[in-house]
Design goal:
Elements: E1 4-10, E2 15-16, E3 21-25, E4 31-36, E5 42-43, E6 54-60, H1 62-68, E7 78-84, E8 91-92, E9 95-98, E10 101-104
Parallel strand pairs: 1-8, 1-9
Antiparallel strand pairs: 1-2, 1-5, 3-4, 3-6, 6-7, 9-10
Binding site for substrate: 7, 42, 105
Family: Belongs to the transthyretin family. 5-hydroxyisourate hydrolase subfamily.
Domain Transthyretin/hydroxyisourate hydrolase: 4-107
Length: 108
C-alpha cells in the first residue's frame, strides 16, 4: 500500500465517487503521482515509497465528476494541503464531497 491514500464519497448520493482524477503534489509543488478513484471511490496507490517531511497537496478534479452526471456544482476542483511529519507513516486523506461543499479529515 502507498504511504498516501484517499477516497471520495459523494454525500449528495451517499455513494462512492468513481472516476475522479487525483493528483499528488510534493513539497516543491511537483507532481509526484496521479490516479483515478475506483468503483469504491478509492485511490490506493499514490506513491512514492518514501516521503520527505513537508507540505503535500492532493488535487481532486471534482467538476468533471458532477459535469458527467449533469449536476450543477460550485467547485471545479478541490485542493487539500496537508503536512507530512514522519517519512514512513501512512497518510489517508478522505474527501466528503457535495455539489456545493466538501469536508475532509485525517483518516486511518
Amino acid at each position: 500500500m502507498s504511504l498516501i491514500t484517499t477516497h471520495v464519497l459523494d454525500t449528495s448520493t451517499g455513494a462512492p465517487a468513481a472516476g475522479i482524477q487525483v493528483t499528488l503534489r510534493g513539497p516543491e509543488q511537483q507532481q509526484i503521482a496521479a490516479g483515478t478513484t475506483d468503483a469504491d471511490g478509492r485511490v490506493g496507490d499514490l506513491g512514492p515509497e518514501s516521503l520527505t517531511p513537508g507540505t503535500y497537496e492532493l488535487v481532486f478534479a471534482t467538476g468533471e465528476h458532477f459535469e458527467a452526471r449533469g449536476v450543477e456544482h460550485f467547485f471545479p476542483q478541490v485542493s487539500l494541503a496537508f503536512s507530512v511529519e514522519a517519512a514512513a507513516e501512512h497518510y489517508h486523506v478522505p474527501l466528503l464531497l457535495s455539489p456545493f461543499g466538501y469536508t475532509t479529515y485525517r483518516g486511518s
